[in-house]
Amino acid sequence: MSRQPKSLGEEAGSGVRGQVRSGSPGTGDRSGRRPSKKRAPRAEGAAGRRGAQPGQKERVGGSPGPGSPRRKQAERRRHREELGERGRSSAERTCTEKRKKDGRTSLKEQRAPSRKEKEAPRKEETWKRLKKHRSPSLASGASVGESLSEEELARILEQLEDKKKLIATVRSKPWPMAKKLTELREAQEFVEKYEGALGKGKGKRLYAYRMLMAKKWVKFKRDFDNFKTQCIPWEMKIKDIESHFGSSVASYFIFLRWMYGVNLVLFGLIFGLVIIPEVLMGVPYGSIPRKTVPRAEEEKAMDFSVLWDFEGYIKYSALFYGYYNNQRTIGWLRYRLPMAYFMVGVSVFGYSLMIVIRSMASNTQGSTSEGESANFTFSFKMFTSWDYLIGNSETADNKYASITTSFKESIVDEQESNKEENIHLTRFLRVLANFLIICCLCGSGYLIYFVVKRSQEFSKMQNVSWYERNEVEIVMSLLGMFCPPLFETIAALENYHPRIGLKWQLGRIFALFLGNLYTFLLALMDDVHLKLSNEEKIKNLTHWTLFNYYNSSGWNESVPRPPLHPADVPRGSCWETAVGIEFMRLTVSDMLVTYITILLGDFLRACFVRFMNYCWCWDLEAGFPSYAEFDISGNVLGLIFNQGMIWMGSFYAPGLVGVNVLRLLTSMYFQCWAVMSSNVPHERVFKASRSNNFYMGLLLLVLFLSLLPVAYAIMSLPPSFDCGPFSGKNRMYDVIQETIENDFPTFLGKIFAFLANPGLIIPAILLMFLAIYYLNSVSKSLSRANAQLRKKIQALREVEKSHKSVKGRTTARDSEDTAKGNSKNATQLQLTKEGTTPHSASQNQTTGKKAQDPGISRSASRITLPVSQHLPVSRPPGVRPDSGQPRPQTHPWRSASGKSAPRPPH
Amino acid sequence: MGNKQTVFTHEQLEAYQDCTFFTRKEIMRLFYRYQDLAPQLVPLDYTSCPDVKVPYELIGSMPELKDNPFRQRIAQVFSDDGDGHMTLDNFLDMFSVMSEMAPRDLKAYYAFKIYDFNDDGYICAWDLEQTVTKLTRGELSAEEVSLVCEKVLGEADGDHDGRLSLEDFQNMILRAPDFLSTFHIRI
Question: Of A335, A473, A576, A659, which is least packed with CB atoms within 10 Å of its CB?
C-alpha cells in the first residue's frame, strides 16, 4: 500500500539516476556537449537529427578508414597506453577496445540484416556520436587514471541494466512526452553503445548476436501484441456502448465476449475431437440401428415440425450422444472414440473450471482490500465516483444526479446514523416481502415439477399438440421472464438502499433460476430412472426379435439370410439422447424468448414511445411507459444459467456447444443493436465495480452445480444398452479401465489400480485439507501483519510530516547559501526546496568541488537539464524527477526511514 | 509490416509505442482523431515534428471529454503551458495515462494533478470544493459542500495539515476499488 507512492518516486528517481550515472569512462566529458542537445525539446530534436545527417554522410565518406585524424589520434593514444602507461587497469583497456570493435561489428550486423533503409540514418548517427564520445573518453580516462577499473565495468553493467529497465518502463513515468522521448532515445543510444562491450573474449560476437536477437524478439513480441489486439472482436462496439451507458452495461458485453471465447474453445475441443472423427471415420448413417431412424418415425423424420423439436433425422445424427458407436477404435487411425468422448467430456469441465478460476484470480490480483472502503466513504465518492468513460450527455446528466443523491445520502447517513423511525413497520414489510418471494419460488418450483411430470405423460401419448410438447420450455421461459419483475415489485416493499436491493434482487433471481433448473433436473432424473427400468424389457425384446428373425422357418436354409434392416430393430429409449434433446430445446427456446422479449419489450416499446408521443395525451418519453433500461442483472444471470445448461448438456449432446456459439454470436450483435437503438441509460448509473468477479463467482457456482448431475450420471447410472459410445458397459467410466487394461502395459494398469485404492485416496484428500488449512492460516497471519505494517507506516508518516515542517525552513536557508557558493548547482538546489537538509547541502558543495571527477561533475550539471526544461508547473515533491541524484551506496536516510516522497537529495 | 502511412517515420512510431501504452494501430487512430479535431491546422506529415497545438476549445469538444466535468483540468494538466492547448505529444500522453493499461501509480499521480485546481502541489479545501461543485453541478448547498470537504479531509488527510498531499491522495486512492475502472477513457 504505502510502498506504492514510494515506488513511483523512486522510479522517477532511478531513471534520472541511471542517466546521471553514465559517468562512465567512455563518455568522459559528454556533459559539455550534452546539455545543448538535451535542452532541445522533442520538436527541435528531430530537426537537430536531420541537421546531423550531413555530418554523418561526411563520416561515411571518410572517417572509418584508419586515415581519419581523430582516429589516428585515438590510435596513437592507445599505443602509448600499451607501451608505458600503467595507470589504467588492463580490464578497462580491454573494455574500451572491445567497445570500439564492437561498435563496428554491431553496426555491421545491424545494418546488414533486414533493417529497413529508413533506419540506417539513425544508426549512423548513433555511430557518429559514439565515435565522437570515444576519443574524449580516452583522454579523460587517461587523466582520471586509477578510478577506472573493473568496478567501472560493473558500473557500466549496472547502468546498462538501469537503462534497459528505463526503456521498458518509460511509458509509466509521469513525464511529459517530450521528456519521455528524449530519455528513451538517450537510453537506447546508451544501450546500443555499451551492450556490445560487455561480452568476454570470444563470446563477444555471440553476445552481440544475442543482443540483436533480443531486439528482434522484442520487435516480434510487439508486432504480435499489435496483432493480438487487432484480433479482439467487437472492441469498437463495446467502446461505443461504454461511452453511452457507462461501464456497468459494458461489463455485460465484455462478459458476453469472454463467454463467447470460452465457448469457442469448448466447441473446438468437442468438434475437433469427437464430432469430426465420428463423421469422417465412424460407420456411416444407416449402417447400424443406433444410426438409423426407426421404421415408425421414418415418414415424418424430415418434417420441419419434427426437426424443430430435434427429433427425426437430427435425433439420429452426430449432434447427440445416441449416434455414437461403442466400437473401440474407428478408422484407419484406430482412433479410440469412446475414450475420446469420455475424455472430452471431462476436459470440457476441466477447462471451464480452470479458465473461470484463473480469470477470478487475475481479477482479484489487481484489486485491493475492500475492508478499507468504510474509512474513505466521502473521499471515494469525491475522487472515484465520476466515470471518465461517460461520453453521452444523457448518461452524464444521470450520473450528476446520482452523484448528488449519493452525496446527500451519505450526508444524511452521517448526520443521523442511528435514527430509527418506524422500525417495526419496516421489519414487518421486509418479512412479508421475503415470505411472498419464498412463496413465488416454491410455486415456480412446483409448477416446473408438475409440468415436467405432465410432459412425461404426454410423451407416452400419441398426437400431442405443439403446446403440449413444448410445455416445459414455455413454462420455464415464462417464469424466467415474469418472476424477476415480480420480485422487483415486491422488493419495493422492503425499502432497502438500492445497492443492497440490487444484491437481494440478484440473489433472488439466482435462487429462482437455480430452483427451476434443479427441479427440472430432478424431474428429468425421474424420467431417466423410469426409462432405465424399462430397458431390461426392451433388451429382451430386441434379443428375441433378432433371434426369431434369424431362426424363423420359411427361409431357404442354403442361402444365408440378409441381416435385419437396422430401421426395423426394436431399440431402447436411449435416455442420454432424450436428456440431450431436452437441453437442446431448452437452450433454443431460451434464446428465442430472449430475442422476442428484446424485440417486444424494448424495441417495440421504444418505437411506440417515440412515434406515438406526437399524438398522445401525456408525455410518453418522460411519463409512464418511457424507454426501457438495460437490465444488467437479468441478462448476466440469464447468460450464466444458459452456460450452466450448456455444461450439463454438452456431455449428452455434443452439438449443443455449437448451438450455443451461434447463440452468443447472434445475441452479441442483436443486443448491441437493441441496447443502442432502444434503451436508455440507467437512472442511477452505477459502476461495474468488481462486479466482474461477482459474475465469475456466480459462474463458478453454476459450473459446480452443473458438474454434479453429470458426474452423478457418469458414476452411478448405467448407460443405455444400445446407443452411445459406452453402450454395453456397466458404467460410463469403465471405458478408462478398459483402455488401461488393453492398451497400456500391465504394470501401468497396476499402478492405476493402486492409485485408485481408497487407502490412498483418503489420505490424499486429508492431506489436501491440511494444506488448505495451513495456507489459509498463513494468509490470515500475513494479512494481519499487513494491517499492522500499514498502521506503523501511517504513524511513521505522521511523525515525519511534523519533522518536515521544521526541516523545510532550514533547507530553504541552506539552499540559498549553496546557490551563492556554487553557481553550477544553483538550479538544482532551488528546485529541491523541500526535504533538503544541512547534510545534503554540504554534499552538494563537495560535489561542486570535485569537478575533476567526471561522473559526479556531469551529474551535477546534467541534473539540471530535465528539471529546468520539463518542469513548467510546480510538481509535488514526491515525484520530482530531480530527487534521484547520485548518492553513496549506503544512504543513511533511505535505508533508515524508508520514507517515500520528501527524500533528501543529499 | 507494410503500412502505407507516411505520417510518422518508423522510428517515431516505435518510440511512441515505447512511451505510451498504445499499439501502432491505436497510435494511428489517435493521430487521426487529433487530426480530425483541426484538419486545417494539423498536417498529415509528422516526420518533421511540426510545432502544432490544437486549442482547448477543440480538445474539450471531443465526445470522450465533452461531458466530463474535469475536462478543462485534464487538458491543462497535460498541456505544456497549462493552458489546455495540446500538441500531439500531449494528446498521446493524455490518452496513454487514461488508457486501461496504465498502472495505478501513474493514474494516481495524474489524478492528483487534475484535482489540484490551483496547481500548488496540494489538494486544499478550495480544490475539494471545486471538485464537489463540478461533480454535483452546484446542486449541494454551501453547508453541504463544506461538510463533504471536511469529511474528505478528515478521512484522507494523514498528517492533519488541512490539505491533501500527493502521498495522502495516493494512500487513499490506491485503496479505492473503483479508481482503475473509472479513471480511464477509451478512445
Answer: A335
Which residues on B lie below 8 Å from A364 (Cβ)?
A: none
Residues B68, A7: C-beta atoms closer than 8 Å = no
Tell me the chain B residues in contact with residue A222 when contact means C-beta distances shorter than 8 Å.
Answer: 17, 23
Residues in contact with A471: Cβ distance below 8 Å, sequence separation at least 6, in sequence order? A451, A454, A455, A458
CB contact under 8 A, B152 and A801: no
Average pLDDT of chain A to the nearest whole number: 71
Asked whether A305 and A315 are in contact (CB, 8 A), the reply is no
Nearest to A567 by CA among A583, A594, A545: A545
CA distance B115 to B163: 12
Cα A176 from Cα B23, distance rounded (Å): 19
* B135 → closest Cβ in A225, A382, A901: A382
For A178, how many CA atoms within 13 A lie in the half-sphere containing its CB? Answer: 25
Given an 8 Å threshold on Cβ–Cβ distance, is A176 in contact with B135? no
- CA dist A644 and A701 (Å) reads 9
Handedness of CA A759, A765, A771, A773 (dihedral sign): negative
A192, containing H or E segment: helix A177-194
Q: How many CB atoms are closer than 10 A to CB A606?
A: 20
Comparing alpha-carbon positions, the chain A residue that sits nearest to B166 is A876
How far is residue A669 CA from its own chain's centroid? 23
Does B63 sit within 8 Å of A380, measured CB to CB? no
> In angstroms, rounded to a whole number, what is the distance separating the alpha carbons of residues B58 and A175?
24
Q: What domains does chain B contain, in order, with CATH numbers?
A: 10-98 (1.10.238.10), 104-182 (1.10.238.10)
Q: Do B93 and A385 touch (CB under 8 A)?
A: no
Please tell me the distance from the alpha carbon of residue A665 to that of residue A688, in angstroms, as a whole number.
Answer: 23
| pTM of the predicted structure, to 2 decimals | 0.63
Residue of chain A whose alpha carbon sits nearest to that of B133: A404
| Rounded distance between C-alpha atoms, residue B83 and residue B79, angstroms | 7
**Beta pairing partners, B164:** B123
Could you give the ipTM of this predicted complex? 0.86
Choose from A177, A215, A883 for mutation: most chain B CBs within 10 A: A177
CB-CB contact of A176 with B109 (8 Å): no
Please report residues of A whose CB lies closer than 8 A to that of B184.
Answer: 388-389
* β-bridge mates for residue B86, sequence order: B54
Closest CA to A216 of A266, A208, A850: A208
Label residue A366 by pLDDT band (50, 70, 90). low
pLDDT digits (tens, 9 = 90+) for A135-184: 444 444 444 444 456 777 788 878 888 887 888 777 777 787 778 888 88
- Residues of A in Cβ contact (< 8 Å) with B173: 383-384
